Amino acid sequence: MATIDRPLLSTDLDGIFRPSSVAIYGISDRTSVRIAENMTVAGVPFYGINPTREEACGIRCYPSIGDCPAVPEMVVMGVGHGRIEDAIGDVLSIGGVRAIITPGLGNEAGAEGPPVSARVSERVRDAGIAMIGPNCMGVATPGAPSPWIGTLTEHFTGGPVATLAHSGSIGEILVSLGPRIGFRTVVSAGNETVTDVADMTAYFAEDPQCRVVGLFLETVRRPAAFEEALRRIAEAGKVAVVLKVGTSEMGARAALAHTGALVGSDRSFSAMLRYYNAIRCDDFGTWLEHLEVFSRATPPRGRRIGAVTNSGGEGEYFADKAEQAGIPLQPLSDELSARIKQEFPNFTDVGNPADCWAIDEDRVVFPRVFQLMAESGEFDVLVSDIDHSNWLVAGERQLAQNIADDLRAACEGTDLFPCVITVTTACPPVEDLRWAREHDIPMLKGSLPGLRALASRLNHRRRVPPARDVQPAAPLAGAGALAELDSAEIASSYGVPYVRAERCDTADGAVAAAERIGYPVVVKIDNVAHKARVGGVALNLLDGSQVRDAAERMGGAVIVAEQVKGGVEVLVGMVRDSDYGPTVVVGIGGALAEALDLVTASLAPLDREGARELVAGLPALTKLLGGEAPDGLIDAIVAVSALAAEHPEIEEIDVNPLLVSPERAVALDCLIVLKGSESR
């Protein structure tokens, strides 16, 4: 079922998330009790539509929608596939309905379901009405009428997190998490034949009650619309946290350039998320911890973390996982360590985390150590690394609660970011969860998932990427893979420096070129991609005889280039994705680029800030570079992204390697592939 014959985004969705009146079409005591309970909210008119009943589920019934005292804004279709088309016709016969929820037309409808769904969806879409489903659990919104076919309890808590899930069972998990994460809403999107996650994401970009959008995706049905929705999220200063399943690379195509071989559809999807400052998680538990930590209103001011624990072993484990998460802990200063030891002589060493167990009475040492750490000015984040488990009892449970409150008291009145991270993934006691929400303190489960989520919150900065609707430049001539020096000339015109090089038709010409360039030189076969694979590169040639031998062996038509040494070999490239367009790739380059597969990606065009964030997203590369990326590398990335954005006829760009040093960045090889038949 196509959903493209409509505006790019339809965000008139108040009828779903803020309905002023509701109805169930086909309400019955047999099938509608639970959803009727969820939809009953004081002050919101609720009508039943059933021509055979005067009352069902405690709701007065009317024969048709036109017989209701007023037109309901939201209508839930509670009839089977054999009656739904007539019921939809009745709903559409009068104006005023703004939203339809269709839980059915799934497996229970059998082979008749898909054609019925197609006809119903077309009629609803043509009427300009929003519809969730078919084949979904519905919508659960704390404090509002919730057309949700499962059970909602008092522990389903309101808050700033809107979650949109393709899986109904994932929706069931979310509404059953308890009061830890506060939800703006939980949507089970179903088959998305009318309203999809792109529409709803754009809606929540404008919704003042929402700060975080959590997306559990099986597919993206309208990539352009989804991309625009994420841009709106970024512009609103909000964050999207995405978990996408079905990430195999089976659809990755064979590619001529290194870059194309390294970028499949899933990596391009990640590149699109990175471009719009969204966060991608690869694990459900980690996704939940991200929703929890980003739901808290007050952001951290910096990355310096101080932690307190009640176990030496747990403290060491916490420090290990912090480093693994990319936020290594720093030792306490000598001054702070001395102050703590002065007050508590039983400390032989004050680590980070500080293990306060048995140093003094717990009601003395824990609050005071937190206070001293808070007053030191050495930290931006303070963490209580203490287990909170619903299975703890008596003194053990009270100890965890007390230490968490010591953390709160130490941070109160400051701009420090307090956080509780527990080793166990067991659910904390309900009273602990409510305490954490009351004080805007994230309570994270599991050391590594919690620390990864905290790292994302520390690293996240509000950033709106450049517009992608770039004016195209005059098309480049040719088709398929361009020759190396032709490719290099184009890249150089955009600001990618290239080594001194000459094209030569004969061995004598190659020797003359080498004399002009100066030894040592490199001789490469011309007009062949991936020359090293076919023995088409000779390095470190020191005199004319070596150049002549190499050129004759390669057939005479060669490139002679200066041999440049000193620096890190980096891959900078682009591949044009069918859904998301030009995707810029940066990684560890050289002959082993494909084998190592150490790359990161974003969309084009990139500004300098986006280029720096792209490099920072690959720790292995930043380590090789010795820290922050040199300006020459950033310039080259921005240049390649501009070239790709301005020339839609380019399918792939491969600058590999770009030799990067603190002083400069210079390309040693370049390949540009244009649309059209492959010529080499």
The beta-strand count equals: 29
The portion of residues forming beta strands comes to 15-25%
Which stretches are poorly predicted, pLDDT < 50 over at least 5 residues? 250-264
End-to-end Cα distance, whole Å, is 41 Å
Structure description:
The protein has 680 residues and is of the alpha/beta class. The chain has 23 helices and 29 strands. The protein has a seven-stranded mixed β-sheet, with helices on both faces. Strands 19, 24, 25, 26, 27, 28 and 29 form a seven-stranded antiparallel β-sheet that branches. It has a six-stranded mixed β-sheet with strand order 8-10-9-11-12-13, sandwiched between helices. Strand 6, helix 4 and strand 7 form a beta-alpha-beta unit. Helix 13 packs parallel to helix 14 (394-411). Residues 250-264 have low confidence and may be disordered.
Task: Put the structure in a nutshell.
With 680 residues, the protein is α/β, with parallel strands linked by helices.
Describe this protein with a few key phrases.
23 helices, seven-stranded mixed beta sheet, alpha/beta, 680 residues
Secondary-structure map:
Elements: H1 14-17, E1 22-25, H2 33-39, E2 46-49, E3 55-56, E4 59-62, E5 74-77, H3 84-92, E6 99-101, H4 113-126, E7 130-132, E8 138-140, E9 158-165, H5 168-175, E10 183-188, H6 197-206, E11 212-217, H7 223-235, E12 239-244, H8 258-262, H9 265-275, E13 279-281, H10 284-294, E14 305-309, H11 312-324, H12 334-343, E15 354-355, H13 362-376, E16 381-385, H14 394-411, E17 417-422, H15 430-438, E18 443-445, H16 447-459, E19 480-481, H17 484-493, E20 501-504, H18 507-517, E21 521-525, E22 537-541, H19 544-553, E23 558-562, E24 568-577, E25 581-588, H20 593-596, E26 599-603, H21 608-616, H22 619-625, H23 631-646, E27 650-660, E28 665-667, E29 670-674
Parallel strand pairs: 1-2, 1-5, 2-4, 5-6, 6-7, 9-10, 9-11, 11-12, 12-13, 14-15, 14-16, 16-17, 17-18
Antiparallel strand pairs: 3-4, 8-10, 19-29, 20-23, 21-22, 21-23, 24-25, 24-27, 25-26, 27-28, 27-29
Helix pairs in contact: 3-4, 6-7, 10-16, 11-16, 13-14, 18-19
